[in-house]
Amino acid sequence: MARMTGPTRLPRIVDVLIVGGGATGAGLLRDLARRGLRCLLVEKGDLASGTSGRYHGLLHSGARYIARDPQAARECIAENAILRRIAPATIEETGGLYVATPDDPDDYVDAFADRCDAVNVPCDDEPLAALFRREPALNRQIRRAYRVPDASLEPWQLVEANLRDAADRGSQALPYHQVVGMERNGGFVSSVSIADLRSGTIERVVPRIIVSAAGAWAGRVAALAGIELRMSPGKGTMLVYNQRMTDTVIARCKPPGDGDIMVPVHTVAILGTTDIPVEDPDHYEVTPAEIEDLIYEGEKLFPDLRRMRILRAYAGVRPLYAAAEFARSGELAGGDRAISRAHAVIDHESRDGVANFVSIVGGKLTTYRLMAEQTADVVCAKLGVDQPCTTADEVLPGQGSGRGYYWLGDRLAAHEATGGGDAALICECELVTRPMLEAFLDERMPCSLDDVRRGTRLGMGPCQGAFCTFRAAGVMAARTGGTVAAQAEPVEDELVAFLRERYRGTRPIAWGRQLQELWLSTGIYWGALGLDAFVSPGSEAGDGHG
Amino acid sequence: MATADVAVVGAGLAGLTAAIRLAEAGARVHVLAAGHATTHWAPGGIDLGALPDSRTSQEAIDRLAMVPGHPYGVLAAELPAALAWLRAVLAREGFELEGAPGDPLRAIPTAIGATRLAALLPAGMAGALPAWAPDETLVVCGPAGFRDFWPEAIAGALRRPSSWRGQTPPGRIEAVSVELPGLAGRRNLSSLDLARLFDDPAWRRAALEGIARAVAARSRAPGRVALPAILGLNDHPAALAAAREILPLLPFEVALAPPSVPGLRLYAVLRGALRRHGGRLQVGEAVHGTIDAAGRVAELRAPAAAREFVLSAGAVVLATGGIAGGGIVADGPATLREEVLGLPVDGPPAGNWLSDDALSPAGHPLETAGIRTDRHLRPVAPAGSTADGRPIAENVRVAGSLLAGQRYLRERCGDGVALASGVLAARKLAGVAR
Ligand SMILES: Cc1cc2nc3c(=O)[nH]c(=O)nc-3n(C[C@H](O)[C@H](O)[C@H](O)COP(=O)(O)OP(=O)(O)OC[C@H]3O[C@@H](n4cnc5c(N)ncnc54)[C@H](O)[C@@H]3O)c2cc1C
Ligand SMILES: Cc1cc2nc3c(=O)[nH]c(=O)nc-3n(C[C@H](O)[C@H](O)[C@H](O)COP(=O)(O)OP(=O)(O)OC[C@H]3O[C@@H](n4cnc5c(N)ncnc54)[C@H](O)[C@@H]3O)c2cc1C
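ok -> structure tokens follow
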């Protein structure tokens, strides 16, 4: 860890300090900025590197919650419609199909459409002939299918668009800044210590209100203010396939369980999820048993699944909130999925006697805006601000005029429209060109190759970075003149860190073609390119997430 | 049905070596390969052995030969003759292999600005072998905008003394990019495209003159210039001679990420040698066979699109290249299968295949997985079985990185093992020639 120094400057004063740069925090920054407040958001990693950057990618229609949580289903479909309006460029209009395999319970299948009706989720019968024509890889024993307005939602662009709107109104977001301490003055948090993780300096901020939008980490942030908040982080594992065996979101007509949804995301498709309670949101592993479980269930949707190639496995942690009342009433039986996925705005004034501290916990990415709105209402009430929420009506920046939803061919079309062949293609799988990479770097330097991945999708396609990583490192060095000063880490170290991070995702699924691919990429970097010269023994990053 | 004296499975260094040796000895040889081999991926030198603390390849070879189960236990003695043979095959096409197993291992710059240890390099790369003098300049020079070679990044990383593995670096390291004739704005050329351009005498003269000007502006002698390995594909000897004549400093080629131009040159020479001796080569055939009750493999089958292809042969050389080559496949997280004959695979227990750290210098336990053989390179029954150590297929020989007990990336012995086992397998089967 870099050196830490004490506070040197006068503390920065802001109206609201938001802890956490996931979808919720970003949405809240936008909402409050639009109501005229000056806010600061701090995020300990890169923006959207927490659960928001490690989720399944589904813009829920609400159909998944019709039986267990009708309230959540209603919220989902309402927000689904709003996001289609305000953030179309982050959405691929895949549609969703809920299908009944022989393993799914008849009563659930039969009641599906009525339950959708009851919570206003549009639902149409999909004729089986049309279903199999459209999605030929599906199990032919599927006996019924319903079409619902699910979609695929890109988290990084969504977060970025929210932050840009806030920035236009004078509110700032700082990545790689961690809240490390809070000073309590009776029933009030008087100042907050924030560590700049890249320079090692600590800054003191004096906010009128602090909002923790720290997701699965909310318990830890509350603890810094001396407040006990019990979270119940639930790990969910997902498998990334090297192809889109479906162009539609496919889910099973049954109560939510493991391995029952496939979401097409850009050039790949993602099968998920599992749900396993974890103690520590920073340290968890993907286990072989989970992977077997996912594939076993997934085969009921796609019988050939075992023969398809998995590119990587990854996991995220659900920010589930274990409200004490919930636990006491014994409703936790049935595993984590029984805990409400709906969110809660917790005003620690009434609950814990801390007047200027609020937590927003739980929820889904789909409902991030609603969560932000409800939280902002509480904050504004405390500050006596009487401005209405406008985030549901105003389109986010960067959505283009009438550009509409994105589609798989977008990048290729854009590439061709701008002269096509001339721009160097750095990542061939995801069509990331040198100008795209340079634009990202110019805006975000200093940043890591892993930030580049989230920002541009570089290295997320079938080769998983084998062919583009060193190219990206080359562009980075050319852009900074290779100087260490302009760069968070020397580019060589970046390369090592990036390859280690990609390995975390391939290791649990390293067999078949993927094992061969691992052997080839190791051969390229270690054998042909001599990467071992950059590796000092024992230098492995021990960080659990990312 | 096709027939041959010997069927060779795999078109990498091991399979081609065995095939050429057999063809030279008069056997009718038929090579079948599912696809192109490591030659198209690997860095282009001939790695016989290098350990982090070995001074020479020979020292590494001698030490590896003492490791129980390492292929060099049997093969080390074959190496000198095998190497002499390879030099002769290459020389016939105007290719030279410089350096010797007894020379000190040198830190050779790579396309990410790291170095790798090597002692034996083709002439185009050999300029990097002599030790660097403190007053020497290294100019890293590449075509502007070429995606696989970034002079600034390479020079930046090479300026870190730690990149040189304890050896003396050049006194000065410079980076320069050059716009090559007619390529302005063409940003998606591969190393193969560029290498083919260097086959053209007129174009390459203009290109080399441009490079010479840029290099001269950056540095005076003494020094050397590092170029990406693109100096000609089909006419490399002439392109290299022109570069040495026109450039103000001694040029050397730097290995790139795949596709490997030096590897393709090697492949072309070997393929030519095989054809000259009447051997046949068929790429695109993934084959299977069975061991009959008499412990022999009589034929190999490739399921072709229209009709099954069958090759009947008196003997088989299996050189399918282990996990990277496709000869060994993991069907799941716990089972290893040998693709062609279903031979027992010797490897670490399931659950202990991979190390926690992607880049642990010790490598992954699974790297040693492969086919165990006797001294005649015949596959043997698995350890612990009643037939432990006894051959299970009389007329089959195993060669190359399919052999168990090596870690070619950590020991840098992959080419040496391939070469020596190819030569030995051919000698063991020489009797089947008519
Ligand atoms: C496996 C899985 C699949 C899911 N699938 C879906 C889906 O398909 N559709 C859907 O709508 N929802 C889905 N969800 C839920 C959704 O991902 C989350 O509800 C949502 O991303 C939470 O966003 P957030 O901003 O609240 O939390 P996060 O994105 O986790 O943001 C919290 C941030 O706070 C930061 N932080 C923590 N402590 C500090 C500190 N001290 N200082 C500074 N920063 C700090 C963290 O680094 C983190 O980035 C899924 C969740 C999981 C786990
Ligand atoms: C990227 C990479 C980098 C490397 N770097 C180094 C290094 O730095 N140092 C070092 O010492 N070694 C290195 N090696 C290893 C070294 O190159 C090999 O060990 C050596 O070339 C020997 O190869 P081989 O002939 O045994 O097999 P390969 O070159 O792997 O060839 C295998 C052949 O078998 C064919 N085949 C496979 N299955 C079938 C089937 N069922 N039917 C038909 N044909 C089949 C394949 O298509 C291919 O033609 C590297 C390897 C790779 C892949």
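The pocket of flavin-adenine dinucleotide (ligand 1) is lined by residues A 19-25, 42-45, 49-52, 55-58, 60, 178-179, 213-217, 221, 236, 238, 272-273, 316-319, 363-366 (CB under 6 Å).
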